[in-house]
Specification:
Order of helices and strands: EHEEEEEEEEEHHHEH
Mean pLDDT: 91
Number of strands: 11
Shape: globular
Structural class: alpha+beta
Number of helices: 5
CATH superfamily of the largest domain: DNA methylase specificity domains
Strand content: 15-25%
Number of domains: 2
Low-confidence stretches: none
CATH topology of the largest domain: Adenine-n6-DNA-methyltransferase TaqI, Chain A, domain 2
Radius of gyration: 21 Å
Distance between the termini: 72 Å
Length: 191
Amino acid sequence: MRKDILGNLVEIQPGYQARGKIWESRKGTHRLLQAKDIEDETLHWDTTIHFNPDLNPNRYRICHDDILFSARGYENKAFLAENPPGNMLASNTFYIIKTQEINPRFLTWWLNQKAAQAYFAQFQVKMGYAYMSKKNLSELEVPVPNIKTQETIAEVLRLWDREQLLTSEIKGLKESIMTSILTTAAENKEG
């Protein structure tokens, strides 16, 4: 298996940096994904704000299978953008990573693994403002297995995510049924 630096495998684009304050507008032409729109490792498109960008939005548009890398703060996590709504832009909290020679689901997974996280941790400041530079991100060494192996890993990850979602839904349904049964028993006026 070969290794390469991330900058040779992908295009890294900083997120949208407004000239001034971003004003939310219900009739805004675009939406903006911010750090607050991520919860439980999930991108929540429905909580994003609408606004009218003052810069050309095309550079900052999130496309299917882009990787959003959290550049600010003490956790540098990667998130795979699957089927984002049209006109969705990434804020400057993120780098938008567009894959060229590597499977995006595989790379997202690898960026969140211990080896990559240890690399990012060495650049974190102990106090003050934490920010991962594009240069440091670009120089991360990445294992590049053959494409078949990448696709197999990506499919296993997709199935694992699906299993986790279904397990959560089943748990919720069981809790609902149990609550209904116990509430009915408690309200039963017999005896």
